[in-house]
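<given_protein>
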Amino acid sequence: MENEHVPVLLNETLEALSVKPDGVYIDGTFGRGGHSAKILEQLGTDGRLIGIDRDAAAVACAQQRFGDDPRFQMFHKGFEALAEVAAEAGKTGKVDGILLDLGVSSPQLDEDERGFSFMRDGPLDMRMDQRESMTAADWLATASQEEIRDVLRRYGEERFAGRIATAIVTQRDEQPIVTTLQLAQLVEASVPRKEKGKHPATRTFQALRIKLNRELEQVESALQQSLEVLKPGGRLVVISFHSLEDRLVKRFMRYQSTADHLPKGLPVSSEGMHAPMRLVGKPVAPGEEEINRNPRARSSRLRVAERLAA
């Protein structure tokens, strides 16, 4: 597809990172290297870029594209290992910018065998890290009806979660649910009212993907670790694609940019206490031109915070 390797909010991301030629940067979600390539273009010989991705295909792409570049180092891990990676690279507290481009990548969606898309028939896999043993099909085969319902409500904000969970359990008693189209068709038949412009299975697939890959827990962990990894003046730049991610990012940045967190009743004054971060600008959404060029950018939001001196 034309938009397969198109990085979202590219110019806005580079501006937010404020790349310095001799700076140290971490691309926590390398994907196919669209953002990384542009960061490397702005780095000088003394600059450093560290890539992280838990998808083996992304790691292979990184080695092919930039493996010979002495300024680049790639780690086959999830971004919840942010502090560990920074320590291994000898850059704890020395990083000028962290980029997290959250969610599933376009190549993952476009590859039938990965099982992320309800528009393509393939095995119901959904593992971002294929070193993990449990697939979405495995989880649906063993989870209780109540667990399935709760996951669809929590991670998909699916109003018909109960109906869909009942249909899944009924179906699996007759025949295992092992392909993406099986699940998509089952969900479509279970939903009494359709959202305009949205496939009925959208929320279900999102919920299962988030659950299986522990996405929100990993986002929370990485955000917290950014405080340890960034140097004073370093930027945290996060691109999110749905409200659950964006809410986590917004709350974290707002909380860390406010100094008055001391619990009431403590014999300590909040005077002189400094917030560890400051907000930079307002949330950025893609323009009409980018959305027309890359429809998958439509729901993206970019938020930026800067690390302050302790």
